[in-house]
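SEVERITY: medium
COMPONENT: batch folding queue
REPORTER: lab tech (J.R.)

DESCRIPTION
The queue accepted two submissions in a row. Attaching both inputs and their returned structure tokens so the on-call engineer can compare them side by side.

ATTACHMENT 1
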Amino acid sequence: MTDYVTQFIEEKTAPHQTVSVFPEGYAFNFYTDRKPGGGIFYNLTAPYVETFGEAKIIDELKKYPPDFIVIYFNPWWPQYENPFFCKQYAFEVCSYIDSAYDTVYSDSYSALNATGQQMSSFYFNIKKRR
């Protein structure tokens, strides 16, 4: 999954464009040498959203809009009570993103265990600012 997202960012964005990966994906910025947008928020895991509040996050996104936003769903984040950004928390932030960005690419990937059984699915949406 990481390869798909990294490849898309490298091939479909210019080095000067900003890319934010939510809820937690600033490693992609390192891998692709793209700067994040969104102001002070690089991490939108549930604890951060709860701490800062959705209104503040939306204000930062409006002031410093990234050119692209990747919403990355990883079911292997058991450390969070509500791990699914846009599905279990941050509804106002996600509503704002949907109103200001168009989905340009979506994909999913099923992870298999050692015996070949499906364990879980990852998926992501890549959005471009209108």
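ATTACHMENT 2
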Amino acid sequence: MIEAAKAYAKLFSSRIVYRDKIIAEYSELENTSWLNRKEKVCYETKHSSYYIFLDNRLVMAPMGTNFGEQNGEMSFLHMNYYERRAKGGYGLLIVENAYVKYPEGSNGTTQLRIDADNYIPRLYKLCETTHQYGTKIAIQLNHAGASAMESRIGIQPVSASATPNKAGGAIPRALTVEEIYSIADDHATAAKRAQTIVFDAIEIHAGHSYLISQFLSPLTFVFVITNSISFEK
């Protein structure tokens, strides 16, 4: 696949536009071989702009490996797994989902954690190793919600409502408004921690029937109007 990619030298420029505003732009910066070109990824908001320069357009999506330690740390086997892909020439690696809140955010016994500072050293080593090959690296942040198993986490799973996220699934506990804000803060804290670790970007997991998608789905989100909810927010 790498050899086929090297033969691809088509010029390109593309962008993502939302409500008449460019929110992401991809463009060629150097007219050289495919793998040696620098690709610019620009994320713009009304507050700031953030640029990532990729060596090429090869991106590895986040995929669960079960290579993590039982305590949620990055294992050396796991590091080797990502290093081999960085060495193989990927422009960007997205590390599989790491949960932001213990224990209810977990959806696996060997899932990565990023909810505390003691997980920083090995994740930093991963980033340092990946960067030596010129590869950028991101990490996916996640909360399992109703996908968590009570037998594994030791408490009743939480969700957008008391509706199982699949037929025959366990009944979760509906989150309070205060808890929702707290989990949002957990994501923000984890994102800040990822920045400290020197990840180049983060990805918020909002699919696969995990917590955020449980709020997005009409099957699992039952909206109850209360005086504490402001529609302006």
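NOTES FROM REPORTER
The chain has a mean pLDDT of 83.
No errors were logged for either attachment.
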